[in-house]
Amino acid sequence: MNKHMECDILVVGLGPGGSTAARFAANGGAKVIAIDKRAEIGTPIQCAEGVSKSVFEKLELEPDPNWLRKEVSGVKLIAPNGKVIDLDESKVSQVAYGYVLDRKVFDKDLVGHAARAGAEIYLKTRFVSGERLENGLVRAHARHFGEDVVIDAKIIIAADGVASRVGPFFGVKTFVPLKYMESCVQYEMTNMRDIKGLEMYFGHDVAPGGYVWVFPKSDNSANVGVGIIPVHSEHKAKYYLDKFLESPRMEGARFVELNAGGVPVSKPLKKTYADNILFVGDAGRIVNPITGGGISTAISTGKYAGMVASDAIRNGKTDADALSGYEDLWQDDFGKRLDVLYKAQEIFVEMSDDELNDAADALSKVNFDKISEIEILKAIAKTNIKLLIKLKSLI
Asked: What pLDDT is attached to residue 387?
């Protein structure tokens, strides 16, 4: 790697969002350099690895069987009192199938697609700082295998996660307040039993402000994790997960792997673009605030960022006005949905166990044409007077 390089677009971070941005930017004719601080893409895993089938439409790629660990069609919601709401074919007429991925394979292959599109990939390359140059370019200072490297670009796409380092160097505050930061810990477990659909457990004693998940990876293995809001919790996330492992549901299961991380469950940045800069996925706080899921939003925003950035390069304009179309694209796609889910999340973290049990009772009386977070919220609100008052602004 040269110590001083130039490109049209620099992508910082090669998760699904960054690799998608790099691919679409390169396909648009831009000279792209993409860097990641890790030596191995796809590790460590920091999510439950679940996605819907629609994510592959966003990618404009056919799903490779090597990416897919398990196809799932049902979801079980377990209330604090143990009541189980089984959202399978018996309650949902149009079941939407999804997958649990093998992120280690999936993420690496997405980087491969970016490289084949023409992006130059550099691993073990950590973004250290950035600055604006007088000629309208932006400069990134990085460390590549212990050596200082300078990369000059016309646009930087920040896709380096919730702890993004890019924004502050260019006047954008990306700090996430603690009240909107979810702490997550996950174990991969084997010797599991009764592995079918996704399972989500709720309650203050189980996961304050969040939930415990069981996402199957095979007929006898699963990702078992917990996400909590620390300001609502007496203990750290690992305490709640270890406690769940002592439950009858996990009898006989055995530990294989540990992963941990943080997820923003706040509103997105007020502006996910600036002069010469675009923010993708977690770096822009563009995450599902109810589930904490970020793969789909990262891929969608990465695609739009790559498209808009390459258009800007062709047009010779890289200021904020030229890049504002990026936010228009993702807002038009799913911005309203995120706003509703953010408002619901604020209500959810304050709900008592009794109210969560009431919500489960409401859901048990409803059948669905299709299932989504918003459809569940509507069903709860329309069948429970107390919750209707709290959720009426959302329906």
From this structure: 65
